[in-house]
Design a protein that fits this description.
The protein is of the alpha+beta class. Helix content is 34%, strand content 41%. It holds the Pfam family SnoaL.
Length: 148
């Protein structure tokens, strides 16, 4: 039997391979992914595809690197770094951010709970201010770009 740490690693490796089917299959049908800063919640396998495709569309050359993984029972914490060039539209609940052509390095942390080999819940944390700054968007600029 594969342990939860190995399952988590395989999910992040799948993102780098753009294997969104494997990622979706790793989520329980009623599993949730919540972006803590915005409260956006993605549910089930389709939610997993939507969330991961959103990032891949905005950063087609994007890669993630696991910096630290801590596993205890059903809980897995993954600190990771995402890097990529913003050459596609980033679709968010606050609006669309057109491609800026800028490179981004973003530090993220996910806390996942597994049950029966599937992700039941995942909370993802990242600094949206850092993301906006690296994209060259201040608060006013980000709001204006979403209204175009």
């Amino acid at each position: 039997m594969t342990d939860n740490a190995d399952l988590a690693r395989s999910i992040y490796e799948a993102w780098n391979q753009r294997d969104f089917d494997l990622m979706a299959d790793s989520v329980a049908p009623d599993g949730t992914l919540t972006v803590v800063g915005t409260g956006d919640t993605f549910t089930g396998q389709e939610g997993s595809r939507q969330y991961n495709q959103m990032w891949a569309d905005a950063f087609p050359d994007g890669t993630i690197t696991i910096d630290r993984l801590i596993s205890s029972g059903d809980q897995v914490v993954v600190e990771f770094t995402g890097r990529g060039t913003h050459t596609g539209t980033l679709v968010t609940s606050m609006g669309e951010i057109p491609a800026t052509g800028r490179s981004v390095t973003l530090h993220l942390c996910d806390i996942a709970e597994f049950k029966d080999g599937k992700v039941r819940t995942q909370r993802t944390y990242f600094d949206t201010g850092s993301l906006m700054s690296q994209l060259g968007l201040g608060v006013g600029q980000a709001a204006a770009s979403t209204q175009q």
